[in-house]
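QA checklist item 7 of 12: single-chain prediction sanity check.
[x] sequence parsed
[x] length recorded as 228
[x] structure emitted
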Amino acid sequence: MKAIITGGNRGIGLEISKRLIALGYEVHVLSRSGISTPPEGLFSWAADVSDYEQTIQIADKIGPVNILINNAGIMNAKTASDYNQDEILHILNVNLITSVRLSVRLAEQMANNGGGRIVSMGSIAGEIGHPDIWYGISKAGITNAMRSIARAFGLKGVIANSVAPGPIDTAMMKNIPQDRKDRLKAATIRQRFCTAEEVAKTVCWLATDAPECINGEVIDLNNGTNYR
């Protein structure tokens, strides 16, 4: 059994990698910095996921997989007027475009091989009016893309879902001003943010044991701050 995880070298991605290795998967991590001493069962590939051609070349070298986790992503502490064109294209390429194109490519392979599972990292930002407008747009897009892939390939055994965490205790939190973090935490039921371990546990469940009727769905992880 084989899995690809983008951005699986730290934070939530690394927790997902460790869990899948523990379940017996051969895990291939794509990240810009790579992993200097990967644990047994993890194969590290240096790749800039904003570059689709580079990403797909590595995916082709890895070969057919059972699981794809689209975890790589960036967020900027910017408002809409702060972005220039290159910055817009960069965040969309990293968070959305390459993830969607890679997902479609691997979904086609999975469909030909009897099925597989794709889980993408969305965000509460894709469901609300987020201050970083392009981050929110990218996350709304990835959720919709998983639904499209589920409908297109579901009859051939491909299951595609997304998770939508609220703020998580990871390095990305440094981009959020402290006063906003305090307000967000105060709005949660348990007065805390979810952890990387909790998100990773949910992602791995969707990627392995979740019922196949959960397809094209989005699972919220925000401790009650954004009820549907």
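[x] summary fact logged: The CA atoms of residues 32 and 62 lie 17 Å apart.
[ ] second reviewer sign-off
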